[in-house]
Amino acid sequence: MPDPKPVSDHLPTDDGGYQLYKAAGKLKGKRAIITGGDSGIGRAIAILFAMEGASSLIVYLPQEEKDAQETKKKVEEHGCECHLLAIDIRKKENCKTVVDTALRNLGGIDILVNNAAFQNMVQDIQDITEEQWERTFDTNIHPFFYLAKYTLPHLKSGSTIINCSSVNHYIGRGDLLDYTSTKGAIVAFTRGLSNQQIHKGIRVNCVCPGPSMPLRYVAELCTNANAGICSMDSTYPIDNVDTGNGAIQRKKWLDGQEDKKPV
Which SUPFAM superfamilies match (predicted)? Predict the structure, then answer.
């Protein structure tokens, strides 16, 4: 399999190449919160949203400041605002701060993208520390609840919440037991919240990406996992590893209003 390069404003073509994303102003004037927006999938979301006309508040850990500044620069190149907030969303009071900051800097919220996640590959349950289990859940699912809870009073009909899950909970990755468990929880949370909020005209959806090459853990995935699980050819039979923007294209489509019914 060829080694795809990270991209932010290009999409894969059928022949294995890339083409510039063609924006159509579908998110013009929209305001988005994007967690984990400093790099990888989160960065690409912020950039493609900007290409469609949406300003954003990206949320990230303080140690990711350099990446966040680069994302801000790329978003602003497309003429939209990009506000930065370095904060640990594992604390529920910080999730409240995220929403308050978005309201103050953007003037409102139309889109919430729950994207931030943590994973650490461990082969056996006996080797997963209690601290790692708690950190994974505190990062990967608890903030989804708090951010949705604090954001929803400010959303209106036509607003959207998009949660980032993974294919892993369908596959059952043994070396990512805690991560896989949280991703399954995200799907269940999305379905329940969607059914709860749809009568208000608020859409809640979930995207489940496969391997995303720009993410930092790819090197670990390819070197440390056992051969039976790590082989992308066997675990993911379709020869197509996401470079980040496949999932982002789906997130952008879920945010738009055209030709869609709430699901």
Answer: NAD(P)-binding Rossmann-fold domains
